[in-house]
Amino acid sequence: MGTFSNQVIINNDIKGVKTYVMPTGAKDVITISGSILGGSIHCADKNSKLAALVATMLDKGTVKKDKYEISETLESVGAELNFSSTRHHTHFTGFCLNNDLDTLLSLLAEQLMTPSFSNDELSTLKSRICGNLERDKEDTKKIAMTHFLRRLFPKHHPNYRDTIDESINLVNKITTKDLFAFHKQRYGRGSIKIAAAGDINPEEFNELIIGPLGAWEKKETIIPPIKEKAKDPKESNETINVPDKTSSDLYIGQSIGIDSEHKDYYALMLGVYILGGNFSARLMQTVRDKQGLTYGIGSSISGVSFGADGYWSIWGTFAPDILKKGIKATKEQIDLWFNKGVTGDELSAKKTTINGSYKVSLDSTAGLAGKILSNAEHGRKITYLDKYPKIIENISLSEVNNAIKKHINPNKLYIVSAGTP
Description:
The chain is α+β, with helices and mostly antiparallel strands and about 425 residues long. About 45% of the residues lie in helices and about 20% in strands. The protein has helices at about 5, 50-55, 65-75, 100-115, 120-135, 140-150, 165-175, 175-185, 200-215, 265-275, 280-290, 325-340, 345-360, 365-375, 385-395, 395-405, and strands at about 10, 15-25, 30-35, 80-85, 90-95, 190-200, 235-240, 250-255, 295-300, 310-320, 415-420. A six-stranded mixed β-sheet has the order 1-2-6-3-5-4. β9 and β10 form a beta hairpin. α2 packs across α8 (about 175-185) and α4 packs parallel to α9 (about 200-215). The radius of gyration is 23 Å and the shape is globular.
């Protein structure tokens, strides 16, 4: 048994509300992290921006309180409460002193259950979002990433991205009627998971949160099955012209055909991390430090959660006049990585880095609550959090190099850059 197995108390007394409470030595402080199934994937057939706007509007007023009263309630006890949205979930995070837990949880339930969705607030929010999207038309990194994902995945895949103009159009179409309809359809008991860590009494916490949420209507919300797979890797090169830019952003990569539950995932993740996961990785040591071609370059695996077949990518930023030289240098490192593999010393060092970062992330109540929630969302047993460092430590050198050979094809890379040629 480990730290999480011994300390996390799981409760499911009310169907559709599951809590994970971890008392710690943090004096007086409590952090909560929770979610409901209801992200962009749940409204993709209507308007993919709807879930995000509903989540953002939750702190703009309820039936009983306007946004100023909500703010005053939180400020009076020094608490915080925030909402956000991802592809699959609406998330909420909160922080308070243990004496004010009742205030925080009562307000959380009120905001989740009875938002007001004011026309004026929605209009202001849409203007702000569209203004930010207009500014994104000058962001070469976001432009390159959008083109990259649109090339790798079909329209109805979770990793596909709308263009900036498509996003603006979708946001402008949303009405308060749409917000109420999505809230009524998706919000309720059924998929609520809440993790809490800190100076907390599990029984008291469950009483305070399950009381108001227990009366909420139950909704049978699931993660919809993924009907389309990534496009097959294909060699391609594309340049997006963005005028008057002093640097170009570059993406190189391809789909990998596996998700985070695949037996090769951790081995491939380690291999990609060795290539470009941090400042001591190969790409930074060579393309940046030795050759001086860029200020920043790295590689990662993304888009592999909840059954989605993801992708690996390299991102770098280059001055326009040395972009071709940067692409050449990057491809040389990819070929060397693929053909020669990684070394035992590299693997050992990166295992230490990854497990060290994992332990550091658990040094705060926010880190603990976040990890517990993410683990629960993925349907894993709590013991996984104790086993994770050992899973990483047990990956062999041959497993890493075999995974690279199996899931990477350096002859079928998609390369996209955005900037001023």
